[in-house]
Amino acid sequence: MTRFRTIYSRWQARTPKVGIYNAAYDIWLDGVPGDHEVMIWTHNRKQVPAGSVVRRSVKLGKYRWTVWATSDNGYIAFVPKRRLDQGTIRIRRMLGWLISTGRLDRDVTLGQIGFGFEIVSTGGRAARFKVDRFSVVSRRR
Questions:
Q1: Is 47 in contact with 120 (CB distance < 8 Å)?
Q2: Residue 8: its pLDDT value, please?
Q3: How is the chain split into domains, by residue range?
């Protein structure tokens, strides 16, 4: 991660008001799939991340997050304090925070960044999930 000065993403997505799902960034580190999966949820409907809460409230960028992690930090999730339908996520800043708190090693490498939906159920009802915009920008040091 230290090779990147910045990594940020802009997104806009629409989700229905039915079902069980999350809308999220899915980031793999140290390979694909790698040693660590970091998810940045933008919207959550009746889902609970793996692991347990390790930080109740942290402000990174414009947003406040609850941070969840498994005991080995193999899975880490940032869950927003409120629904986010569009905006800019400062991915490098968030990964840097995980490094500074000891959840990730300083020499961790970026494998993949994606954005989409993890749909568990729509309760048998028709539902529409739509990504209107998704981009990632990175700059090296």
A1: yes
A2: 96
A3: 4-121
